[in-house]
Inverse folding.
């Protein structure tokens, strides 16, 4: 798990403050599956009034635990602090986020409450289509290999961003992902990022994603596909063989009891 000792400790300290309306999301959670270190921890909230309350409570607890905590920004929907100890530092951010997602927030032994991996993946795709950050390349490759193929992620992600098409998202990610080898020196990773290899893998993943979305019927845009309790990238030639799942406010598990039970078994257990 690529979390620093400081990050692991503060997450453990703050886990009791997390709940279904104040949960860990962003890169620190996503990269716990991969090799990249995240420089911050994001705590998302469904309601603006929860942002300030959670930030102030967390600030007080970390201070009581002997950590140095310095406010960097305090705005109604965005609080940011720098937490440090023994020469090590990390940023904490408390932010307002949309409550539209595919699955409910899940309990986690270390993080308290977290976004489902697929919701993390769709958020990352949207971020990568709107900024130039080499760390997004590393994360997208990890998602493609460890969470869900990018074609299925992109296909579902457009439901969270009206006006985008799957092809448009792919094109935006391609357009922004123009980096030099030196850009990847800013990405903390163990082992270090191989720029040539990671860019080759991203291009291949996007080519596969484009091939997939061009074969899919437009009336299925924004849906996830489930087979045997697993979220999968479907075969466009046999879509009737899969259960579909749409997003909604605060997310939900499938209404089919057997599918829901299989998914809870696979995805719903707290992570140790």
């Amino acid at each position: 798990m690529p979390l620093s000792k400081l990050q692991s400790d503060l997450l453990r300290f703050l886990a009791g403050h997390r709940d279904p309306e104040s949960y860990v999301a962003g890169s620190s959670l996503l990269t716990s599956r991969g090799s990249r270190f995240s420089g911050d921890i994001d705590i998302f909230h469904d309601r603006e009034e929860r942002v300030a309350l959670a930030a102030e409570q967390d600030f007080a607890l970390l201070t009581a635990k002997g950590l140095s905590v310095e406010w960097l920004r305090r705005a109604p929907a965005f609080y940011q602090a720098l937490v440090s100890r023994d020469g090590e530092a990390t940023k904490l951010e408390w932010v307002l986020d949309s409550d539209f997602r595919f699955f409910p927030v899940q309990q986690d032994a270390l993080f308290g409450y977290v976004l489902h991996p697929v919701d993390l993946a769709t958020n990352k795709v949207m971020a990568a289509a709107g900024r130039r950050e080499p760390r997004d390349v590393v994360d997208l490759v990890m998602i493609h290999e460890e969470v869900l193929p990018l074609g299925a992620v992109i296909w579902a992600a457009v439901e969270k961003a009206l006006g985008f098409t799957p092809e448009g998202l792919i094109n935006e990610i391609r357009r922004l992902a123009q980096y030099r080898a030196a850009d990847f020196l800013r990405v903390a990773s163990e082992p270090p990022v191989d720029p040539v290899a990671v860019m080759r893998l991203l291009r291949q993943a996007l080519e596969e994603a484009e091939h997939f979305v061009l074969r899919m019927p437009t009336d299925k845009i924004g849906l996830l596909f489930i087979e045997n309790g697993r979220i999968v990238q479907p075969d466009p030639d046999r879509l009737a063989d899969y259960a579909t799942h749409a997003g909604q406010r605060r997310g939900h598990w499938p209404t089919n009891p057997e599918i829901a039970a299989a998914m809870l078994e696979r995805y719903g257990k707290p992570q140790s």
Remarks:
- The two ends are 11 Å apart (CA to CA).
- Residues 1-115 form a domain with the Nuclear Transport Factor 2; Chain: A, fold (CATH 3.10.450).
- The chain has a mean pLDDT of 92.
- The first strand starts at residue 22 and ends at 25.
